[in-house]
Protein backbone atom coordinates (compact mmCIF):
# COMPACT_ATOMS: atom_id res chain seq x y z
CA UNK A 1 0.00 0.00 0.00
CA UNK A 2 1.24 3.47 -0.81
CA UNK A 3 2.20 5.96 1.91
CA UNK A 4 -0.59 8.17 0.58
CA UNK A 5 -3.19 5.45 1.30
CA UNK A 6 -1.75 4.86 4.78
CA UNK A 7 -1.96 8.59 5.46
CA UNK A 8 -5.60 8.59 4.28
CA UNK A 9 -6.46 5.65 6.53
CA UNK A 10 -5.00 7.52 9.50
CA UNK A 11 -6.75 10.76 8.62
CA UNK A 12 -10.02 8.84 8.26
CA UNK A 13 -9.61 7.43 11.76
CA UNK A 14 -8.92 10.96 13.12
CA UNK A 15 -11.95 12.28 11.26
CA UNK A 16 -14.33 9.77 12.83
CA UNK A 17 -12.82 10.29 16.30
CA UNK A 18 -13.54 14.00 15.98
CA UNK A 19 -16.93 13.43 14.38
CA UNK A 20 -18.15 11.06 17.12
CA UNK A 21 -20.32 13.61 19.00
CA UNK A 22 -22.09 14.68 15.80
CA UNK A 23 -22.09 11.39 13.85
CA UNK A 24 -25.73 10.51 14.56
CA UNK A 25 -26.91 13.83 13.08
CA UNK A 26 -26.10 12.37 9.65
CA UNK A 27 -28.07 9.21 10.26
CA UNK A 28 -30.99 11.11 11.79
CA UNK A 29 -30.98 13.74 9.02
CA UNK A 30 -30.47 16.65 11.40
CA UNK A 31 -28.65 19.98 11.11
CA UNK A 32 -26.52 20.13 7.95
CA UNK A 33 -27.93 16.75 6.90
CA UNK A 34 -31.55 17.91 6.92
CA UNK A 35 -32.94 17.94 3.37
CA UNK A 36 -36.57 18.44 4.42
CA UNK A 37 -39.41 16.22 5.64
CA UNK A 38 -40.04 14.34 2.38
CA UNK A 39 -36.41 13.35 2.15
CA UNK A 40 -36.31 12.32 5.83
CA UNK A 41 -39.42 10.20 5.38
CA UNK A 42 -37.90 8.38 2.37
CA UNK A 43 -34.58 7.97 4.17
CA UNK A 44 -36.26 6.34 7.18
CA UNK A 45 -38.34 4.12 4.92
CA UNK A 46 -35.22 2.89 3.14
CA UNK A 47 -33.32 2.40 6.41
CA UNK A 48 -36.25 0.25 7.56
CA UNK A 49 -36.04 -1.72 4.31
CA UNK A 50 -32.40 -2.52 5.13
CA UNK A 51 -33.21 -3.29 8.77
CA UNK A 52 -35.98 -5.67 7.65
CA UNK A 53 -33.60 -7.42 5.23
CA UNK A 54 -31.14 -7.91 8.09
CA UNK A 55 -33.88 -9.26 10.37
CA UNK A 56 -35.08 -11.60 7.64
CA UNK A 57 -31.69 -13.32 7.56
CA UNK A 58 -32.09 -14.21 11.23
CA UNK A 59 -28.42 -13.92 12.18
CA UNK A 60 -27.31 -16.09 15.10
CA UNK A 61 -24.16 -17.51 16.64
CA UNK A 62 -20.80 -15.79 16.49
CA UNK A 63 -21.32 -12.36 14.95
CA UNK A 64 -18.83 -9.68 13.98
CA UNK A 65 -19.53 -6.03 13.29
CA UNK A 66 -16.73 -4.08 11.64
CA UNK A 67 -16.55 -0.27 11.99
CA UNK A 68 -19.42 -0.44 14.46
CA UNK A 69 -19.48 3.31 15.12
CA UNK A 70 -21.89 4.76 17.65
CA UNK A 71 -24.09 1.64 17.67
CA UNK A 72 -26.85 2.49 15.21
CA UNK A 73 -26.65 -1.08 13.87
CA UNK A 74 -25.02 -2.70 16.89
CA UNK A 75 -28.28 -2.25 18.82
CA UNK A 76 -30.08 -4.34 16.20
CA UNK A 77 -27.36 -7.01 16.02
CA UNK A 78 -27.23 -7.27 19.83
CA UNK A 79 -30.88 -8.35 19.85
CA UNK A 80 -30.14 -11.50 17.87
CA UNK A 81 -29.39 -14.80 19.54
CA UNK A 82 -25.62 -14.93 19.74
CA UNK A 83 -22.48 -13.14 20.80
CA UNK A 84 -21.22 -10.09 18.97
CA UNK A 85 -17.69 -8.74 18.52
CA UNK A 86 -17.82 -5.05 17.58
CA UNK A 87 -14.65 -3.49 16.14
CA UNK A 88 -13.84 0.17 15.58
CA UNK A 89 -10.66 2.24 15.65
CA UNK A 90 -12.22 5.12 17.56
CA UNK A 91 -12.43 5.12 21.35
CA UNK A 92 -14.87 8.02 21.12
CA UNK A 93 -17.45 6.12 19.06
CA UNK A 94 -16.99 2.93 21.10
CA UNK A 95 -17.88 4.83 24.29
CA UNK A 96 -21.10 6.00 22.64
CA UNK A 97 -21.82 2.54 21.30
CA UNK A 98 -21.45 0.95 24.73
CA UNK A 99 -23.75 3.57 26.29
CA UNK A 100 -26.39 3.04 23.61
CA UNK A 101 -26.33 -0.76 23.42
CA UNK A 102 -25.70 -1.74 27.07
CA UNK A 103 -25.41 -5.47 26.36
CA UNK A 104 -23.24 -8.14 27.96
CA UNK A 105 -23.41 -10.07 24.67
CA UNK A 106 -21.17 -7.50 22.94
CA UNK A 107 -17.38 -7.62 23.11
CA UNK A 108 -15.74 -4.38 21.98
CA UNK A 109 -12.37 -4.26 20.23
CA UNK A 110 -10.64 -0.94 19.56
CA UNK A 111 -8.44 -1.59 16.51
CA UNK A 112 -7.56 -0.37 13.04
CA UNK A 113 -9.33 -2.93 10.81
CA UNK A 114 -6.37 -2.92 8.40
CA UNK A 115 -4.05 -4.02 11.22
CA UNK A 116 -6.45 -6.28 13.09
CA UNK A 117 -5.54 -9.96 13.58
CA UNK A 118 -8.84 -11.74 14.33
CA UNK A 119 -8.65 -14.62 16.80
CA UNK A 120 -12.01 -16.24 15.96
CA UNK A 121 -14.24 -17.22 13.06
CA UNK A 122 -17.73 -15.83 12.67
CA UNK A 123 -21.07 -17.10 11.39
CA UNK A 124 -22.27 -13.64 10.51
CA UNK A 125 -20.31 -10.50 9.61
CA UNK A 126 -21.91 -7.08 9.27
CA UNK A 127 -20.59 -3.68 8.27
CA UNK A 128 -22.54 -0.51 7.68
CA UNK A 129 -21.14 2.40 5.67
CA UNK A 130 -17.66 0.93 5.86
CA UNK A 131 -16.89 -0.65 2.47
CA UNK A 132 -16.91 2.78 0.81
CA UNK A 133 -14.04 3.76 3.14
CA UNK A 134 -11.79 0.85 2.09
CA UNK A 135 -9.13 2.20 -0.28
CA UNK A 136 -9.12 0.40 -3.65
CA UNK A 137 -5.54 -0.73 -2.93
CA UNK A 138 -6.83 -2.60 0.17
CA UNK A 139 -10.06 -4.02 -1.28
CA UNK A 140 -8.78 -7.50 -2.23
CA UNK A 141 -6.84 -7.97 1.01
CA UNK A 142 -9.87 -6.86 3.02
CA UNK A 143 -12.10 -9.48 1.39
CA UNK A 144 -9.39 -12.13 1.70
CA UNK A 145 -9.29 -11.43 5.44
CA UNK A 146 -13.07 -11.83 5.55
CA UNK A 147 -12.75 -15.15 3.74
CA UNK A 148 -10.40 -16.30 6.48
CA UNK A 149 -12.72 -15.33 9.33
CA UNK A 150 -16.15 -16.27 7.97
CA UNK A 151 -17.25 -19.76 9.06
CA UNK A 152 -18.21 -22.32 6.40
CA UNK A 153 -21.76 -21.44 5.35
CA UNK A 154 -21.41 -18.02 6.99
CA UNK A 155 -22.72 -14.74 5.62
CA UNK A 156 -21.48 -11.19 5.20
CA UNK A 157 -24.12 -8.45 5.14
CA UNK A 158 -23.28 -4.87 4.27
CA UNK A 159 -25.05 -1.61 3.67
CA UNK A 160 -23.53 1.51 2.15
CA UNK A 161 -24.39 4.73 0.38
CA UNK A 162 -25.47 4.84 -3.22
CA UNK A 163 -23.79 7.66 -5.10
CA UNK A 164 -26.46 10.20 -4.31
CA UNK A 165 -25.72 13.82 -3.50
CA UNK A 166 -28.47 14.00 -0.88
CA UNK A 167 -27.23 11.06 1.14
CA UNK A 168 -24.34 13.29 2.18
CA UNK A 169 -23.91 16.55 3.99
CA UNK A 170 -25.29 19.77 2.51
CA UNK A 171 -22.03 21.64 2.69
CA UNK A 172 -19.81 18.79 1.56
CA UNK A 173 -17.69 19.96 -1.35
CA UNK A 174 -17.94 17.58 -4.28
CA UNK A 175 -15.10 17.30 -6.71
CA UNK A 176 -14.47 15.26 -9.80
CA UNK A 177 -12.33 12.66 -8.02
CA UNK A 178 -14.69 10.16 -6.39
CA UNK A 179 -11.99 8.21 -4.54
CA UNK A 180 -11.57 10.74 -1.77
CA UNK A 181 -13.76 13.43 -0.27
CA UNK A 182 -13.02 16.46 1.83
CA UNK A 183 -15.36 16.23 4.83
CA UNK A 184 -16.29 19.17 7.03
CA UNK A 185 -17.25 18.99 10.71
CA UNK A 186 -19.84 21.30 12.28
CA UNK A 187 -17.04 23.53 13.58
CA UNK A 188 -15.50 23.88 10.11
CA UNK A 189 -12.49 21.56 10.53
CA UNK A 190 -11.86 19.54 7.37
CA UNK A 191 -10.46 16.06 6.75
CA UNK A 192 -9.73 14.07 3.62
CA UNK A 193 -11.17 10.56 3.60
CA UNK A 194 -11.63 7.64 1.22
CA UNK A 195 -15.07 7.37 -0.37
CA UNK A 196 -15.68 4.78 -3.07
CA UNK A 197 -19.29 4.43 -4.18
CA UNK A 198 -20.37 0.92 -5.16
CA UNK A 199 -23.39 -0.01 -7.16
CA UNK A 200 -24.93 -3.44 -6.68
CA UNK A 201 -24.02 -4.98 -10.04
CA UNK A 202 -20.44 -3.70 -9.96
CA UNK A 203 -19.94 -5.02 -6.43
CA UNK A 204 -21.34 -8.44 -7.35
CA UNK A 205 -18.96 -8.57 -10.33
CA UNK A 206 -15.96 -7.30 -8.36
CA UNK A 207 -16.37 -9.97 -5.67
CA UNK A 208 -16.74 -12.95 -7.98
CA UNK A 209 -13.04 -13.44 -8.88
CA UNK A 210 -12.22 -13.07 -5.17
CA UNK A 211 -14.28 -16.19 -4.39
CA UNK A 212 -17.45 -14.50 -3.16
CA UNK A 213 -21.02 -14.79 -4.34
CA UNK A 214 -22.56 -11.34 -3.97
CA UNK A 215 -26.28 -10.75 -3.76
CA UNK A 216 -26.52 -6.97 -3.59
CA UNK A 217 -29.38 -4.68 -4.51
CA UNK A 218 -30.28 -1.03 -4.07
CA UNK A 219 -33.05 0.77 -2.25
CA UNK A 220 -34.87 3.35 -4.33
CA UNK A 221 -32.66 6.34 -3.57
CA UNK A 222 -30.00 5.99 -0.93
CA UNK A 223 -28.53 2.59 -0.18
CA UNK A 224 -26.81 -0.45 -1.63
CA UNK A 225 -27.14 -3.52 0.57
CA UNK A 226 -27.16 -7.29 0.61
CA UNK A 227 -25.09 -10.35 1.31
CA UNK A 228 -21.92 -12.05 0.21
CA UNK A 229 -21.10 -15.68 0.87
CA UNK A 230 -18.08 -17.78 0.02
CA UNK A 231 -18.37 -19.33 -3.40
CA UNK A 232 -15.75 -22.01 -2.74
C1 LIG B 1 -19.29 5.83 8.36
S1 LIG B 1 -18.91 5.32 9.98
C2 LIG B 1 -20.01 3.91 10.13
C3 LIG B 1 -20.37 3.58 11.55
C4 LIG B 1 -21.45 2.52 11.70
N1 LIG B 1 -21.11 1.32 11.00
C5 LIG B 1 -22.78 3.05 11.23
O1 LIG B 1 -23.25 2.61 10.17
O2 LIG B 1 -23.35 3.89 11.93
C6 LIG B 1 -17.33 4.60 9.78
C7 LIG B 1 -16.75 4.01 11.05
O3 LIG B 1 -15.49 3.43 10.71
C8 LIG B 1 -14.59 3.66 11.75
N2 LIG B 1 -13.24 3.55 11.16
C9 LIG B 1 -12.66 4.38 10.27
N3 LIG B 1 -11.46 3.91 9.89
C10 LIG B 1 -11.27 2.76 10.59
C11 LIG B 1 -10.23 1.80 10.63
N4 LIG B 1 -9.13 1.90 9.87
N5 LIG B 1 -10.37 0.73 11.46
C12 LIG B 1 -11.48 0.60 12.24
N6 LIG B 1 -12.51 1.46 12.22
C13 LIG B 1 -12.41 2.53 11.40
C14 LIG B 1 -14.92 5.02 12.26
O4 LIG B 1 -14.42 5.25 13.57
C15 LIG B 1 -16.44 5.02 12.15
O5 LIG B 1 -17.02 4.62 13.35
Please provide a written account of the structure.
The chain is globular. It starts with a helix and ends with a strand. With 232 residues, the chain is of the alpha/beta class. β8 (212-218) and β9 (223-230) form a beta hairpin. It contains 7 helices and 9 strands; from the N terminus they run αααβαβαββαβββαββ. It is 33% helix and 28% strand. Strands 3-2-1-4-5-9-8 form a 7-stranded mixed beta sheet, with helices on both faces. Strands 6-7 form a two-stranded antiparallel sheet. S-adenosylmethionine (SAM) binds at residues 9, 12-13, 16, 67-69, 72-73, 88-90, 93, 112-114, 128-130, 133.
Describe, in short, the structure shown:
With 232 residues, the chain is α/β, with parallel strands linked by helices. Helix content is 33%, strand content 28%. The relative contact order is 0.16.
